[in-house]
Amino acid sequence: MNMQKYLSFMLAGTLFLGLAGCGGGGAATVAGTNSAASGQEPKQAASLPAVELLNVSYDPTRELYESFNKSFAAHWKQTKGQDVTIKQSHGGSGKQSRSVIDGLEADVVTLALAYDIDALTAPGLIPANWQERLPDNSSPYTSTIVFLVRKGNPKQIKDWDDLVKPGVQVITPNPKTSGGARWNHLAAWGFALKKYGGDEAKASEFLKQLYKNVPVLDSGARGATTTFVERGIGDVLLAWENEAFLAVNELGKDKVEIVAPPTSILAEPPVAVVDKVVDKKGTREVAEAYLKYLYTEEGQKIAAENFYRPRLEAVAKQYEDKFPKIELFTIKDVAGDWKNAQEKHFADGALFDQIYQP
Amino acid sequence: MGKQRRVIPGFGLTLGYTVIYLSLLVLIPLGVLLLKTTSLSFEQFWQIATADRVLASYRVSFFSALSAALINSVFGLVVAWVLVRFSFPGKRVLDMLVDLPFALPTAVAGISLTAVFAQNGWIGQYLEAWGIKVAFTPLGVVVALIFIGIPFVVRTVQPVLAEIDKQVEEAAATLGASAWQTFRRVIFPQLFPALLTGFSLAFARSLGEYGSVVFISGNMPMKTEITPLIIMTKLEQFDYTGATAIATVMLAASFVLLLFINLLQWRCSKHQLPY
Amino acid sequence: MTTGNRKAKDRWVRAGLLLIAVLFLGIFLIVPLVAVFAKALEEGVSVYAAAVAESDALAAIKLTLLITGIVVPLNLIFGLAAGWCIAKFSFPGKSFLLTLIDLPFAVSPVISGLIFVLVFGAQGLLGPWLDQYNVKIIFAVPGIALATAFVTFPFVARELIPIMQSQGKEEEEAALTLGANGWKTFWRITIPNIKWGLLYGVILCSARAIGEFGAVSVVSGHIRGMTNTVPLHVEILYNEYQFVASFAVASILTLLAIATLIAKSIIEERSHVH
Fold first, then answer.
1. Does the beta carbon of C130 lie under 8 angstroms from any beta carbon of chain A?
2. Contacts of A87 in chain C (CB under 8 A)
3. What distance in Å separates the CA atoms of residue A62 and residue A306, rounded to the nearest whole number?
4. What topology does CATH give the domain C45-271?
């Protein structure tokens, strides 16, 4: 008799879920329109209704997009007479991509590596050929991996070789959770391949030695920078070039300095319009213009100002002195593509896991 | 049981509401997690749940949570004792602060603890001189979990201690029992269920803690990587089934633990209270 | 053993215990607490004030208050219902029900967020159906409220159940026998008896709701000025190397918590008159 009672309660509970879903939905819609309304407040009666974009990006681009968004909004207002507000979301690249897959309505994604945008093709958010839609593999700016060392470089760290020396502590984030750390890992791999004439066994051994020197694996690039600069742990930090510049400027010119290794990897952070979202929201035109603006002289200048290497020849010339000369190899040279790199290095049981196998 | 006449109304209403709310918010979402896990075959599940790195993370999570909860039981008892039995200046402030770990966002706690216990931090630099490293070692994980667990032991023991009849103690003392004997024979048995509850709550909470730990642990695979971080890692590699498989293991552990606690508590209280 | 001896020994034991307690709380609670304020005020009051009054910070505070306002009443009603049926009645499976109520508390925050993504996410169980009606749960207010409600689920109930159990049901039974109806009994007898426990539960629940990080982080989407709660905003600022601003906003949370705890202790003091 009691059992029956319980069962009916449970049943009622299940039925209720539907109702709760509807109730919650109502709240969601109201909240949505509210925030949209408060976000707009057009100063003058514009011919076109104001529009809002969401740019889902990775950690180190905050400063870049903060100034880029202002510039684009002014540009769009001038050419189209429409107000555009760009909302930003930042986080680890993999996490951000996962949020978009789970329904975060990003009009554009600007992530750390192509693998994280490739992941959006599986649920049909973007087509498989997304990377061909914009010039330069859809990467309007590039970066590379450099070393950040203590002021005066007391351990004399100049090249990747120096990282595996005994007594050198290397800080790099966990490549399983951090996009930047994957570039770090592949840069070291590329160096080792070159050094050992393509001998993968020796290159693996090199990486093993390198990770032996790593005392802390933060979950993200920003955490690693903090560990190195603020906590004073480690002799060298492997970092995005733009992160390294930012860290020096923001956290202390007197504490740390940048060392550019002779060779490193060409990191290409890609961008894409999320088709399914822009078609639903009707924002395709402005979203596409937003990304294209990254390739204009103005956009390229903003990228360079924020320590990303510009693609545009003219702008690159102008900011030539800003970036150290490094011989750059690409991911194609060292791993083929991201899918291969993932399978070989970062998937469960792949090289990175083997390194930490007891 | 159900046959006794009830004077008090509202049984159906309140139990119904309780069960429905519980189902909606807790049971059904958790059920979806289990459902997702069943998309794996048992071999696949076993392989994911017992991979070397995952096993190591269980060990880290389990032993850090256990040590933290044990430390909290001892010191939490002392704190509760001091707060109930002694009066001293600043007592109310201290009493209030015990609840702080509830209120402080775990991420803030993590950042703050790391700043304090790092080798250049306020406390860390002195420990460093003694050769003790806290931040970015297993000890760091324990420190974060101690912080998280403080209120549980204190707050479960405190009210029970306050209710214990002082006359019984005085009687024991008059009969010649030493302070230690009085504590062990008279007070401790009465406190034990509360202490056990506090311990297990602190333990259960620590097992799953994420925000404060990731900052201070250093996240080294096999050494300081906790199970929730493995789940997060799997998610960021778009490995949903892997993440849910490990989540299921953790969930089962929490559930068994809580069931055990509640049964134990129920038995203890049966022995003690005549009704 | 003479009483004098005993008293002297007692004093030493007392001093020792007090020292241990103060040291323990000092190292693990007070130093990290002071660190928050010290870092927040590192660059002076004006920087502190600017950080707190910044528009994204204000939006985050508003969102956090809204979420707390939704979640606490829900869990309060639940706590009362659960307390009533568990404390005043005996039925089979009670111990099991208690365990289930405790469950969210032991579930890792990461999992608490994950389950709602699995249910309401675009790839989740109800995702496609919700999408059809253009209903947003995850990465919007309802998702954040759900995750927060899950995490703070047991707090009021856990406070009320033991209190209501220890009070028994004699008073209610007496009132009912004397002809009062159920509601009247509840309001006149039960509520006054449990009000302090209730208040304590509400305070704990609010404090946790304000401070929840892990679960909310999974379902929020981190959109600046829209779906960032205060703890997430603290993390964002920290990641922007704005350490001072980060600790400044964190100190607001801490102050809020301390204020509620002070209120609680004052009210509790008054309640001990009886």
1. yes
2. 223-226
3. 10
4. MetI-like fold (1.10.3720)
